[in-house]
Write a structure and sequence with these properties.
- By secondary structure, this protein is of the alpha+beta class.
- It folds into four domains: about 5-105; about 175-275, PAS domain (Beta-Lactamase); about 285-375, Helix Hairpins; about 375-535, Heat Shock Protein 90, CATH 3.30.565.10.
- It is built from 14 helices and 14 strands.
- The chain has helices spanning about 5-30, 35-60, 60-105, 110-170, 215-220, 230-240, 280-320, 320-335, 340-370, 380-390, 395-400, 415-430, 450-455, 500-510, and strands at about 175-185, 190-195, 200-205, 210, 245-250, 255-265, 270-275, 380, 405, 410-415, 440-445, 460-470, 515-520, 525-535.
- A five-stranded antiparallel beta sheet has the order 2-1-7-6-5, sandwiched between helices. Strands 9-11-12-14-13 form a five-stranded mixed beta sheet, covered by helices on one side.
- β5 (about 245-250) and β6 form a beta hairpin.
- α10 packs across α12.
- The model is unreliable at about 205-210 (pLDDT under 50).
Amino acid sequence: MIGDPLFINIKDRASQRLPQIIDALKRNYIDDSIQRRNLQNLSNLYFSRINELNRVLVSKDSTVRLKVVSLSAEFSENSEEQVDSMVLIEEMAMADINKELSKNLSSAPVNFLIVISVFVLVLLLAYLSLSKQLVTSQKLQNNLEESNSSLEIANTSLAHSQAFLKSLLYSNPNSIVTYIAIRDNHGKIQDFELTFQNSNKLVGADGQPEDVIGKRMKEVFPTIDQTDLFKNMVNTIETSQPRSIEVFYPHDGRVHGYYEVHISKLNDGVVLNGRNIDHIKYAQKELERSIHRLNEQNREIESANEQLRQFTFIASHDLQEPLRKITMFSDMIINKAPKDPEIEGYVSKLHGSVSKMSDLIKAIGKYSRLQLKQVNLQLVDLNKIMQQVIDDLNPVITEKNASITISELPTINCDPQQISQLFMHLLSNSLKFTYKKPEIQVQCMLVDDPLILNTLKYNFSYYRFRFIDNGIGFSNEFSEKLFVIFQKLHDESKFPGTGLGLALCQKVVENHKGKISAYSKENEGSTFDVYLPANLQLNQ
């Protein structure tokens, strides 16, 4: 049998399988020290038997073989004892397990209920926790949505603001430029780098557009050292005080002319906001030239006024002297010559001409003084002025049995002497130019009609003084011609005069920033409207 191939094959397969079985059993008994020891003893028996068997198979000694047979019988007994011991231990362990299992099975319902209760409690706690987390998550989701909405609104607002600022910057007619300072190792500013400009590209020295962003100031404007701009930019950074200056750029191919520049600090740089003011400078120069011309004209006017004053003096004094001598010598002729009606007639006409000449010279003197005299404003009760004029005209009023009705007059700022002349000439005309009993009305009212106020030159409150008479009147086509100096509309022989009365009236009204007008029909009387400021201020 030992040499039987089938036996050898079975032996070899058992030798290969046995270590695997023993390893598997070791893993099962990893926590059982007794069984591991029994398994080790059994393993030793098996391996020693295998070794003896292998030695017999290679030996041809019959004694050895017999010894092996004897050992095999001994091995079988020992191995059966070892296996029985291990089986007994396993049966005892199995019995313990069955007892524990029976015990566990008897308490299973209670344990099951406890487990179920614990499970339900865990589920409930998990549900509550999950619900809380869901609520918190929903709040977070809502907050996130609100934050996203606010962020979108903020982004939209920011985009609008950026678009607005960009539009503002690039549509601004001023030139807005930013510079950053370039310093040396000691921190001193040596130059500036141009970082932004809102205007179109500057025109280079060759006449072509030039991008100057990133370039140095002295490179872009070589003549900048000839202005105070660079120094003021440095001072603005060092003091943080904004300033405005006027700069003249010498012609360097890029910028030329006068600029008004506002300088403000921005971090370690400046913002320049400049506008070309050539038109203002040219206007100032033109204004200076105009002022110079006006000063020259004022000197000429002053010289003319001086000549006029001399003429007025001559007219008032020197021209009157020859007239007085003519009158004196003509009277001497009458007194010393034989009585001759013809000579007396000539002398009478001579006296009339001299008297007319004297009145004319006096009238010219008055008109000239009105041209030269400054208005002496006083707060005057016009009722008193009018009463004084009536008193002066009383002989003529009595002679012609005239009726004069005067309404209540206001108190205004005016020159009392000039206003007295105005009232005197207007009333004298009404008394003179009539063929019947004079009836004269003087009315006064505060003007509130916008149509009338719009025809007045100055922005004052005005009173209207209306003089109405029943005299011979005049054709309304001459209503403006009346106020021309030396203008006469009626026969000199019937209504003698100098032709200066109404011209004097107009001059007085103009001196008071007022207006005078007249309207009439022939043989239906005349109406004169005089507009005078209620509170005249000559500096307005």
